[in-house]
Structures
1.
Amino acid sequence: MLSVASYPQLPPEAGSEVAFCGRSNVGKSSAINAITGIGGLARVSKTPGRTQQLNFFRIDDERRIVDLPGYGYARVPAEVKRRWDQLLEQYLRSRRSLRGVILLMDIRHPLTDFDRQMLAWCQVAAMPVHILLTKADKLGRGAINTTVAQVSEALKTEFDLPVGVSGTGGVTLQAFSAAKRTGIDDVHTVLDRWLGFEQAKKTPVRPREEG
């Protein structure tokens, strides 16, 4: 794993990478571990905002997964939050090797102000976004379907984003549960498309830590 705290520290832009981001305590680390099939790859903490740097996990020499700092609840000084915001915005708008963003939202509390800010940054950068509505195991099937429909409609009306379109600047979304492993195959399909794998559904992405 390679951890960086400022834009000049980022690794070379060769190859492709996908970034995972979301509000603190949304279950981002648990999702990364479930999707990659490696328990403990991304450290799970009960303290919101534990991830305070950009953490790069190497899949192979040409592909990476990036764990971005959790935003929203982190108990850090205002100046630190300001630096995080600047780093995230610059990364999303300027990183040429970034192929897409996996944006995680708690299905019980989707589209917070922080989620909207991330979507706005991605929209400016014409960056494809795949939304994971996490902790879907906390709701029944009817409530899940209702929330997915409401979020989809909000994306269309508030951001004028083409929901369900996988091209540049488009947004796709799904319900997800790391605890129940619900929706993992769908995420693998997205990673397959963005990172160029042919058998993502059959061979889960398994990053190697940077030495």
Note: Confidence is low (pLDDT under 50) at residues 42-50, 199-203.
2.
Amino acid sequence: MPGGPSGPRRLASAALALGIAGAVVVLPGTAASAATYVPVSGAGSTWSANALRQWAANVKKNGMTINFAATGSTDGRTQFANGTVDFGVSEIPYGLYDSNFGRAADQPPARKFAYMPIVAGGTSFMYNLNIGGRRVTNLRLSGENVAKVFTGAIKYWNDPAIKADNPSLTLPARRIVPVVRSDGSGTTAQFTLWLSKQYPDIWNAYCARNGKRTPCGLTSYYPYKPSEGFVAKSGSENVSGFVRQPQGEGAITYVEYSYPEKAGFPVVKLLNSAGYYVAPTAENVAVALTKAEIEEHNTDPAVYLTQKLDNVYRNPDKRAYPLSSYSYIIVPVAEEYGLKQPDKGYTLGKFGYYLLCEGQNQAKSLGYSPLPKNLVEAGLKQVERIPNMAREPNKIANCRNPTFSGDGTNTLANNAPYPPECDRKGGPAQCTTGTGGAPQDTPSNNNGGSTGGNNPGGSGGPNPTAGPNATAGPNASAGPNAAPSAGAVDPLTGDPVAGGSDPGAGAGTGGDFVAGIPVALDADGGWRLSHTLMLLAGVLFVGLMIGPPLLARSLQRRGRNNSWSGS
């Protein structure tokens, strides 16, 4: 029959065309929802490291690998500038004058970048102090006394100035051991900025004594002399780890509130401008930062969204914690260095969306304070500048942030509780409630100022920290870099104890990477080359699977038809 043999071919061609059409209809949607994440690396702040590590662990469950090395803010800025990491994290921007050098410690890099706030928090003062074998959990200090402790002007815990802050405690004649950072640190920068703004005379005298030029301002490298009883450690884990070790009794350090809260240790209640001693809780930080000045008008990337905190230090609200601030991620906004690989921008954009939105809902439980709505909105705009990111319209509408409200006010700050009168300077008997990770009460033990009122008979009472081993705490060994026996000193003299070392110094937490294998996940980043390749693979697969069976059946029918016609 003329043209007969072409029938099966037409059927096979039709089947293949049908498969292609089906693939065209189905595969684009599948490909668009299965974009592959690739590993992204960052380095920097130990202040915000606990939040970043938790967020990275959260997104890893969805196939995203974020490798973050908590090496300190200075190193994070340097690595980002050199292109060795995809993002940096820092509490301070590039280009700030550093009194340690007499110039800016670093200049904004040639690499194109943007600052994006990621979390708020309070720089706390974690301490290890006992009275009669019972851990003190309700210590209070004025800002001036903090300044004097960290400049060596106050050397013993029973100094009259500290006694005045703590009228209900009979403080021991124990040497104070100030523990400072040995590495370039954003935490140090924020602390020394506060010292220079609030107590310039005390800070300038200390800097001059340490051979630094005056007036002395912000520095990322804390000046100190070991001979004066100071101890220096690298990274937040190591300064907090030193304080919480049993040999660390008498020690005090400055560190983000998340660390003592995780370690089960108390923090100082700091005197604010309203005359109340307050802890750096999420609520008190949120209140304080309502007075922060954020640069939102000058769009120069070197300053846009940076913070000015002078009014935070002096916030007159009774609830405000003075040493409150923001931490920033430094993101790339051009296809250079690692961002030449499009999927890196896509992955970093997704992570940026996550930490600004879903991540903020977890900030309080991690020892931080969530960002207010105006900074989340500004941050989302910065995310959208990352090359090859996948924009998500109306993203902020789905954010479960505890600061958000219908009228734009900060709900967390508005609902923050006011401090009790027992925490007012000059008020009734000092509050006994604990702070930070040690909420246990510390009963009053100052019986009319008697030097013998250490109340050793309190063991067995309601305070679960009682006993000679109270300073160890239930979480004393937590953390891979805690170094519980590193760099021990005699708390009475400040002299090093033989055998002490600092295995964590230098490298900091650089090895604490989150491991994971990138997989394809839901995404809406639009059509890309990988999607086209997936489409072609699908077309080929459909053709190979459907075409041959159809062709075989067609040939069989043709054969039967020929046999009928020939019979």
Note: The chain has 15 helices and 19 strands.
3.
Amino acid sequence: MIDISICICTFRRPLLLQRLLTAVFAQNYNQECLEVIVVDNDVHRSAIPVLNEFKKQFHDRLTVLELGESNISLARNAAIGVARGEWVVMVDDDECPAQDWLHYLLATQASFNADVVFAPVLPEYAEGVPPWIIKGQFFDRRRPVSGTPIDDKDARSGNVLVRKSFLDQLRTSSGAGPFDPSFGKTGGEDSMLFRQLHARGACMVWCDEAPVTEIVPVDRATASWLLQRSFRTGQLFMRTELAMFPKNQRWHRGLWLGLRAIIQLCISFVLAIVLLPLSPLKGFSWARICASQFGKLNHFLGAHLHVYGD
């Protein structure tokens, strides 16, 4: 009987996918109760050679799906749509877990009777990443104590265990599945989903003993990439926040959030300018906050950055 469905969406990362699948199939867990579902979201099918090799070895325990349209929401929905387990685990194709990863996720779930268990994603810096990026800890994330309740603000899909029955309750207007396809090019589909689960009363907790590592390539370890990510995070915060309100209440909430973003933008801009010559890392942190506030305001113009697909 399948208890756990590990869902992986991949896009043009065959070598990293190979590393991830090797670690997944080496888990200290009853492999007969485990299935792995991989969705190749690349129209050129770049993952198929790697997947065929694993398919020869693991047969029915590996399900391979192909999705021609580059849309992360549709890819996630496709994987969840065929999942047979009581629990769905989502992990990204550039991540890699230790051998006891599943054990700790499930142990935390049992200890707290949780519906969702989040765990750390630790940066693994590629060779050539500038020292100031590592020192600034810009890719580090908050790590609370195991069992700490998590709300939608800290929710991410990179390393998470979710009760499948909760996912089955969520259907977007298109009927495509729990992840909204309108976020499929921009990202933010995971934030939207966990906002909805939190609103439905799902018990969401943290497990600090089940980290995965995530490759940070050189092309992401730049000031421009980090500022753009902060800008996009601001856009997606405003978009998902307003989407949770009835249409007749969004203007009021949007006005309040917009005014707050203007104030925070002005403050962070001044602090960034003042601190950059004195303490570059602190100054850059404030520059990222400034970019995030600008992204929130930019949301009202209706144009959003696309980060998935060609």
Note: The beta strands are 4-10, 34-40, 62-66, 87-91, 95-97, 116-118, 121-125, 159-163, 204-206, 212-216.
4.
Amino acid sequence: MKKRINDLDLSKWKKYEDLWTDSLWMIDARDRSGAHTNTYHGNFVPQIPHQLMRRFTKRGDVVLDGFLGSGTTLIEAKRLGRCGIGVELLPQVANRAKKNVQAQEGAGKSEIVVADSTTKKAHAGVATALKSMRKKSAQLLLLHPPYHDIIKFSSKRGDLSNATTVEEFTRRFGDVVANLCPFLAKGGHVAVVIGDKYSNSEWVPLGFYLLQETLKRDPSLRLKSVIIKNMAGNRAKQNQGRLWRYRALKGGYYIFKHEYVLLFKKS
């Protein structure tokens, strides 16, 4: 019998109308229920981990986040009864995430590792967290890195937003994949959430670069879906719609309105 990867009862598949199965995700507003907040610039909407966890994990499974930020993934994991492990580079951000997760009700266990996700320290921290949860592996790995240098999160060398070139950014992201994918169970999934950027009058396809880098760093991964998600309520463009429209008309380009959720499965 094929091992189940989620808690869905497909004999009652029609009742899951809240689960998305199309590759275009239109999200009007972020979920602000529970402990979810929007105070951390650069965090992703809770609906993304919510959808992925329900499709690709069961209660009690492990979700690993390599770029924890304010704790969105661990909050959602706790709500859904999953075990969450998050790796965060910045201690002050990790402390904020810890408070956010503690404020959320739920049965899921949570562990936060303060480390650079490319390092042996991060690898050892995740291994220790799994052991404390009495788990051997993760079923879902979520990676939502900085979109290169669009937002500077810190001055730390290990911060991917400080990569001096797109090539360095891509390579260092690949180092994260190589460091954390070994914790993924066979049949588990990786989701990379990434947007592109515009620099020196040129569109820089970060999503395509990271897609290729992910497959290169772990040959056991297979690309399952490329999901396009709309970008709504972008802080950098808030209340400046007309200005950006003028700039686009003058500069001969199109305004960013989407980002990617790249889904891979470990064979």
Note: The mean pLDDT is 93.
